[in-house]
Amino acid sequence: KERTFIAVKPDGVQRGLVSDIISRFERRGYKLVGLKLLVPSVGLAKEHYADLSSKPFFAGLVDYMTNGKAPVVGMVWEGPAVIKQGRVMLGATDPKAAGPGTIRGDYCLTIGRNICHGSDSAESAQKEIELWFGGRGEV
Ligand code: ATP
């Protein structure tokens, strides 16, 4: 069964969008198999965004995810094509390119505050579920 890691980032939590994001996945028919509220450690955030470590915005991104002004909601969702369809439901990474009806297209405007994260491949999903949930995929 296919699983993906979806996170509501601190801006999404702070703005009260957790229930809407969960609701969209539930109504689509996906199954929630893991859920946790946490302020990630710097180590966790750096590992999660390891691919971006050379980018100029990396330090700001890690600080934003970990400074505790608001927590992150990490989730594991299961169901047919959930990795690809989860990304479709989130919308384009840059909200300026995200269409209406997507989470980012409906709720945000800037890439640095784009509300949510979704694994972009089977390999990323496996790695991220391991990283955020210790591999169990559920807690
Ligand atoms: P995500 O992993 O969040 O779903 P993605 O994999 O589609 O996004 P990446 O290019 O890996 O996109 O970027 C990961 C995250 O880094 C983005 O969601 C965004 O929060 C942040 N980010 C990317 N580009 C920028 C930028 N130019 N300025 C600020 N933050 C950025």
Automatic annotation (TrEMBL):
Query: What's the name of the protein?
Result: Nucleoside diphosphate kinase
Cofactor(s) needed by this chain: Mg(2+)
Which biological process annotations from GO are given for this protein?
CTP biosynthetic process; GTP biosynthetic process; UTP biosynthetic process
- Which keywords belong to this entry? Kinase, Membrane, Transferase, Transmembrane, Transmembrane helix
| Species annotation | Coemansia javaensis
The UniProt record gives the binding positions of ATP as K9, F57, R87, T93, R104, N114
The keyword Nuclease is annotated on this UniProt entry: no
- Listed GO molecular functions? nucleoside diphosphate kinase activity
Residue limits of the Nucleoside diphosphate kinase-like domain?
1-139
Q: Does the keyword Kinase apply?
A: yes
Q: What class of enzyme is it?
A: transferase
Shown residues within the full chain: 65 to 203 of 218
Please name the catalytic residues of this protein. Answer: H117
Coiled coil start-end: none
Give the E.C. number(s): 2.7.4.6
Family, similarity comment:
Belongs to the NDK family.
